[in-house]
Amino acid sequence: MTLTRPALGLAALALALPVLTACGEDEPKLIIYNAQHEQLLEQIAPAFEEETGIDVELRHGKDLELSNQLVQEGDASDADVFLTENSPAMSQVEQAGLFERLPDDVLEVIPAQYRPRSGLWTGFVARSTVLVYNTDLVEESELPDSILELAEPEWAGRISFSPTGADFQAIVAAILHLEGEEATRAWLEGIEENGTVYDGNNVVLESVDAGESEVGIVYHYYWERDRVEGGDLSDDSAQYYFADQDPGAFLSVSGAGILESSDMKDEAREFLEFLVGEEGQQILADSYALEYPLNPAVQLEKGVKPFSELQPPVVNVSDLDSEAVVDLMTEVGFL
Amino acid sequence: MLLVVGVGVAALTLVPLGYVLWTTAELGADEARDFLWRPRIGELLWNTVRLLVAGVAASAVLGVVGAWVVERTDVPGRGWWHGLLCAPLAVPAFVNGYGWVSTTHAVQSFPGAVMVVTLSYYPLVYLPTVAALRRLDPAVEEVATSLGRGGWSVFARVTLPAVSPAVLGGALLVGLHLLAEYGALQLLNYPTLTTAILQQYATVFNGPEATLLALVLVSFCLLLLGLELLLRGHRRRSRVGSGSSGDPVRIRLGRMRLPVLAGLTGLALWALGVPLAALVRWLLRGTSAAVDLGELSGAVVTTLGLAVSGGVTATALAVPVVWLAVRNRGLVTTAVERSVYTASAMPGIVIALALVTVSIRLVPSLYQTVVVLLVGYTILFLPRAVVSVRSTFELVPPGLEEVARNLGCTGPGVARRVTLPLVLPGLTAATALVSLAVATELTATLLLAPLGTDTLATRFWSDASSIAYGAAAPYGLALIVLSIPSTWLLGRLSIRSAS
Amino acid sequence: MTAALEIRGLEAGYRGTPVLRGLDLVVPDGVTAILGPSGCGKTTLLRAVAGFVTPSAGTVTVAGSEVVGRRTVPARLRGLGYVPQDGALFPHLSVARNVRFGLPRSVRDADARVAEMLELVELPATMATRYPHELSGGQQQRVALARALAPRPRVVLLDEPFSSLDASLREDTGRAVVRALRAAGAAAVLVTHDQGEALSLADQVAVMLDGAFLQVGSPGSVYLTPSDPRVASFLGHASLLDGKVADGREATCALGVVPLQTTTAPGVVRLAVRAEQLQIRSAGADGAPAEVVDISFYGHDATVRVRLDSGEELSARTPATSVPTAGDRVSVRVVGDVVAFAEGP
């Protein structure tokens, strides 16, 4: 036994204290509850700090984890800004009455279908639903015209998806809005029967690329990002975009909003302005995120299917109901 | 005063159980039944139970056979094999799962899940079994031999019953770990109650559904504890008389030597080689592996800070509990000590869920602070701290203090000149053990760490669970390095406790 | 009739260090004690016979059949009873199950055999259902013997079986064990470092030192006629004195002229004077003048250590009624014949 020195324990404690107290610094920071990809915010936040001199503190989590946390925290929340990957979590916080209305100059930048009628928050990037398929196992011509067909018996044992994530739940929310509760339940039951469940869209992508399932329901950027990174998970697969306003062509909107309880609302507004402004949007477009900027003045290049060629169904973000989706998915047995 | 602190600590450790029961009661029976009486829950239960049974059985077999080979045969290089057989403890289960999943997808199945958790947790059976075999008077086995029993019969009829309390205790630990395991099973895509609770949490935060699942999980843990008590029975199996534990007669492997060596090598390769090779491979070629030294060192500093604070807190709180139990035996003090032990049946996820809710509802100012995280670690690891602190305090018989008083020492003088020097090494060891456990904790940390607080485990997890294997590798290696000292300590203790 | 146990030229060692250096021993019926200080190799001898240590040379024959020699019979097939220190009862089995452990499954009247064995070792039959931790040390030893005797071995090996018992228990248990062994008709090898135990319980005593036997014989012969000064000093607490023999029947030493037990060739000898042969008398009386160094009082008698004026220190045993005090001047005299050993060349 070598740990005989009393000093050792005390020294270790002394070592630990500064680390623990480092969390509470004096200077006020703009606190962002961020459910968007961490890497994305780590590119845009420094740019914003440099431009405005406002310090930003990021706290990462998942869409519904953070939205639920905000609802629980209520007025006591530290958060100034809330960013999500998908809109249902935004709707939840909106319904709890926690958002501050955004100024018009922020709202007007983004086309109306990508923000709620209330003006309490706005979309800032969007991602398209796709079917990623293993090119050795399936021909593109075999792929269905509609995502709803994946519930048919012919797809038994061939599909995979990640139902526990907010991404998939947003897609379900769109289907629920477009097709109604009965059809959505039937569809969920069908794919539950047909598919393999994974946790995480990357895992879905990997399983398709490895040939463990033939097709997977994900968003477009997973496959595109892997292409950019070297193609470990995308070399034996390709993406298929649904067309003709099929629910499978659903475009999910990442939202941003300001909390009513914020004590740094001006700084928060500056951040949102930056986020939807051309400069911020260009940073997003150039970043590794590969999501579609929603400011029409900025275009996503990098070989991703152009925004203008997408044929998404018309869904207003105000109409997506996350609570009903969770109930329905619990009922079917995904949760 | 001491009693107040002790009762306070006990109350704290009972928070998770209280929370689960309270929330369930609040929910109402109908709603609970509707949620629990579903095929999905049946599937989770079936997955959990079969993993539990197969994992515990496989760990017990592997642990006992390994201990027997090392302690009772003439296999060459026994010291090395002992080290290698303990070593998987230094690879956190979720790092092991990562190693396997990133090598082959074949492990994403029931047999795969059983294999990976067994490789991670069999040392929990191996270590106490080795210690028990060391303590066992070899004369007992010799007498059985002289009475005409062959090697196998001696093992089955004498050795195994004699070490069975140790094996059973180890198996119980494996069971509790399996019930609480999140990271490895999530990577193996094997849904159990625990992974489902975390999914519930990610979807609907701490909704009543997560609590209901937690209730089921806690019931399992308590069931396991009860089962172990029942199997152990009241019979004493400790050695009778003092006896000398001389060198036991070792069984000559003879022609079996090569197969045994091959088996041991295979086990080491499976349990250590695969995860380590995967880490190194991804470190070298990972596409997302550009190691950000700043982030890595940041995570190391955060992890060490939390680890040391957690270790010190848990040990400091263990002292009054142990002091009461050792020096002031009574109904209340015994109850205090027991209540601490019940926390060992609480999976990290349940403790975390309880603290999230309790802190939001009762002390919102503490929610999302390090304080709650440290409370979580304390509840989670207090049983370990109490065990080591207790063994330390038993080294200081009251007689010593009486002698010191008799020689003219004042109360504080006795503490400073006699008690403290004697218990400090033990307290430091307890702190170290808890610290290292904190350093590799994943589940509770995921829920309780203030947003933006990255530990090695959570950084590893966020990368590994999104298939960024390369990015995860440096954090995985750092976790292993951090786990080596406690593993080494445990390996040594298992051998030394005998002599 | 063949001897119960016969050992010829037995050698054994650990990692190159010899522990047993060519031992020969014939164990007839009755109890043979192997007596020696700790570390002399007596436990190794017992374990070599039992089959837990592999000898490097020599043979061991049990009741006429060789178990070590041209081929080595495994320990479990040697048919030897074995009672280690502390008894080593199986802690998870009751007394009855301990005793029947060595009986083949085919034994029908196992219960009767258990009862018989318990009776043999003088334990009440009600003890059969108890567990080892509920027994006293002496009872545990008796159960251990019953367990060893149950399969009817020809020889029972006992390794310091009484060393962990209280002095008061030791004697009773020892006698009971010997009675049981005789009743069962088993020969026994008893390893001990306690000369009282060896002399009082055994029919034959083998004195062992440094891996070799110094003397094997009846208790009386090894005590009264030691063949080696080391045997004398170990067994009788004998004091060793230098002396000189002139005519073969007497020797001259610091105590004056003393009679010898056997005729000895003239020359320099080593004399062994047992404690009870030395008589302490008041100063001035007939004998060698000396001073009392210290005294150990035992109640029934006392051991008195004296320093002769010529410098030698001796131990004497005196009755409790006439114990001097330290520092007293006394004179010392020898009673009876003294054993002499010719000094080596």
Automatic annotation (TrEMBL), chain A:
GO terms for biological process: iron ion transport; transmembrane transport. Fe cation binds at residues 37, 85, 221-222. One of its GO terms (molecular function) is metal ion binding. Residues 1-21 form the signal peptide. PROSITE patterns: PROKAR_LIPOPROTEIN, SBP_BACTERIAL_1. The keyword Transport applies. Belongs to the bacterial solute-binding protein 1 family. This is Iron ABC transporter substrate-binding protein.
TrEMBL record, chain B:
Keywords: Cell inner membrane, Cell membrane, Membrane, Transmembrane, Transmembrane helix, Transport. It is found in: Cell inner membrane; Cell membrane. GO terms for cellular component: plasma membrane. It comes from the Bacteria. The chain crosses the membrane at residues 49-70, 82-101, 113-133, 154-180, 210-231, 260-284, 304-326, 338-360, 366-387, 422-447, 467-490. Belongs to the binding-protein-dependent transport system permease family. This is Iron ABC transporter permease.
Automatic annotation (TrEMBL), chain C:
The keyword Repeat does not apply. Residues 5-235 form the ABC transporter domain. Pfam families: ABC_tran, TOBE_2. It comes from the Bacteria. PROSITE patterns: ABC_TRANSPORTER_1, ABC_TRANSPORTER_2. GO terms for molecular function: ABC-type ferric iron transporter activity; ABC-type quaternary ammonium compound transporting activity; ATP binding; ATP hydrolysis activity. Its EC number is 7.6.2.9. It is an enzyme of class 7 (translocase). InterPro entries: AAA+_ATPase, ABC_SmlMolc_Importer, ABC_transporter-like_ATP-bd, ABC_transporter-like_CS, ABC_transpr_FbpC, Mo/tungstate-bd_C_term_dom, P-loop_NTPase, Transp-assoc_OB_typ2. GO terms for cellular component: ATP-binding cassette (ABC) transporter complex. Keywords: ATP-binding, Cell inner membrane, Cell membrane, Ion transport, Iron, Iron transport, Membrane, Nucleotide-binding, Translocase, Transport. Gene3D superfamilies: P-loop containing nucleotide triphosphate hydrolases (3.40.50.300). This is ABC-type quaternary amine transporter.
